[in-house]
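Model the whole thing, not chain by chain.
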Amino acid sequence: MERCELLETCGFFRKYEKDWSSACKGMISTYCVGPKMNECKRKDYRKQHGAPPPVDMMPTGQILRAAESD
Ligand code: SF4
């Protein structure tokens, strides 16, 4: 299976790979090991900032706030 080249070091993937909630599962199968890996906003962020994005930033660019209820 094709995988994102940053999979081993990506904070989002490492934190959420075992979280098989439907949201995370969908993100990982769509981006990290799926057809949109080159459209991941985390990669854009790395390019722009020269540093990895916050762990909870999803491949879509939104911040995942699991602890909040809004
Ligand atoms: S979140 Fe983005 S950078 Fe991280 S493994 Fe998935 S596709 Fe790669």
